[in-house]
Amino acid sequence: MKLQFPQPKTIQQKIALWTGAALLATITAFVLFSSYNARNEAIENAKATATYIATVEAGKVKAEIEQAMIAARTTGEALKQIKNKTNPISLTRDQVNAMLKSVNESHPQFIGVYTNWEPNAFDGRDSEFINKPGHDKTGRFLPYWEKNASGGVQVTALVDYDKEGPGDYYQIPKRTKQQSIVGPYEYPVAGKIVTMASLLEPIVVDGEFYA
Fold first, then answer.
1. What whole-number distance in Å separates Cα of residue 190 and Cα of residue 128?
2. Rg of the chain (C-alpha set)
3. Distance between CA atoms of residues 157 and 175, nearest Å
């Protein structure tokens, strides 16, 4: 199909035609320029929004980590007093279990809270607790207070603590004797494999590692 347009015959018609064409070109250029600016502005706004969201989320993660480290440090300092050479405090395994349970219950974001003592390092009575709740066949004090499927907490015995890799949550603080963050790694929680990180406060007194 071919379209035909009338040709300008007079000077006035030619001037009007070229003026209209120039105006159309100006409008087109303005629209293109505006569209280009709008696109750039949208990109910059998207970048700013993404940066803001990332900053907010990073702040939330940092706050949660700091809260977890405070809880770990506070609990660790309390347990260190058991081995205080000058003025030790006396805590039973049941009392420590009650402490760990309370810490987990009061922090909904925590998956679990635990302590893992060296053989007979807690009270010298490992043989009396073989395969009891929070203990394995060694009788070591290994309570892990974890969230269960119903939202409550339950105690199990820690596993794989003697293995490099899966047991890094225990092996690393034992080796370094320093507060540390380990993970992410996979660990069974309430019958499911969960990817997690551990914030660790080792029980070290006068250079000796206890838990």
1. 26
2. 34
3. 21
Per the CB < 8 A criterion, the answer to whether 211 and 173 are in contact is no
pLDDT tens digits in sequence order for the chain, 211 residues long: 433 444 545 555 555 555 555 555 655 665 656 655 556 666 666 666 666 566 655 555 566 677 777 888 888 899 999 999 888 999 999 999 999 999 999 888 888 899 999 999 999 999 999 999 999 999 999 999 998 888 789 999 999 999 988 888 899 999 999 988 887 878 777 778 878 778 889 999 999 999 9
- What domains are there in the chain, each with its CATH number? 61-209 (3.30.450.20)
Sign of CA dihedral 172, 165, 108, 92: negative
> What are 64's two structure tokens?
């949660």
> Rounded to an integer, what is the distance from CA 72 to the centroid of its chain?
15
State the pairing for strand pair 180-189/153-157.
unpaired
